[in-house]
Amino acid sequence: MARPLRVEYPGAFYHVMHRGNAGEDIFISSRDRERFLEYLANTVERYEIKVHTYCLMSNHYHLLVETPHPNLSQAIKWINVSYAAYFNRKRRRTGHLFQGRFKSILVDADEYLKHLSRYIHLNPLRAKIVEVLPEYKWSSYPAFVGKVKVPQWLETDWLHSLFGKKRKSAAGNYQAFVETIDITKLENPAKELTAGFILGGAEFVDWVKDTFLAERSKEREIPQLTSLKPRLTPDEVVAAVCNEFNCHRHLILQKGRKKNLARDVAIYLCRDFTGESGVELGRYFGNISGAGITLRHNHISKEIQNNRRLKARMNRLKKRIVNI
Question: Pairing between strand 12-19 and 50-56?
């Protein structure tokens, strides 16, 4: 079984999920849930992680955590081993309580923290366990909306700061953000994952690749690295650009036309994703020079910084290309 790719660094955010073995319940009684939360509180103290959101369901749990130190695996392993030992001892059972390794998604907190928190907190409502969300006592939601006292180990300041300067108004605004959405139309933010474990924009994905994964590209037992280090053909990149701009490929490959944004974008992406040299790409794009390729690449780089619409378009294209 291929081991999951873990990227750990100081200040990282993760959505952590773990299910019971074969889908079996991991929480049977209220005392089970209380004990798990005790272990979670101990983990905050022992490993100095920050818990921004949690939700305990019957056969799985969700955590949204921040790691000031690069120790996610250590922290979650300690929780799971401690709780499984308690659960098995209490019920005189043996064997694995949890199903395989825990799943963790590396999160661009600035872009996704509040959306992930909402999605996690809505779990009991989507599962029809409760009709009034603040009544579900086994998540951090009642604490966030002011229905119960905030546990000392639960981090609420960051999320509240996104909804107001004062705690009371922030709690009310957050409650409106969560409870006024139509849950039948709510999409899982994880649908936007890159390589199965990164949730963030193209810039965040590029930063993770360049900072943590460049030296690991030859580790064949980690399949996610293949999709993070794509080596595509110019034809594949151009096809994606044609689809985005709704144009024919000859418009992109034809040189001489001024203000040809689709062509410039294709050149920019080919430089980043194909591994071809400037000279080789120059031949592909109508026999222009390698210097001409560099010029167009630099031009689009500047445009992306100054044009939000173009930046969003490039993010869509990069995600599409990464997942080809």
Answer: unpaired
With a CB cutoff of 8 Å and minimum separation 6, the contacts of 307 are none
Phi and psi based region of residue 105 (left: phi greater than 0; alpha: psi -120 to 50; beta: remaining): beta
Mean pLDDT of 246-275: 86
Tell me the CATH number of domain 231-322, given options 1.10.8.50, 1.10.1750.10, 3.40.50.980, 2.40.37.10: 1.10.1750.10
pLDDT at site 221 = 47
> 12-192 has which CATH code?
3.30.70.1290
**Residue burial 270-299, b: 16+ Cβ < 10 Å; e: rest:** bbbbbebebeebbebbeebeeebbeebbee
Q: What is the mean pLDDT of residues 99-124?
A: 94
Please report which confidence band the pLDDT of residue 231 belongs to, taking 50, 70 and 90 as the band edges: low
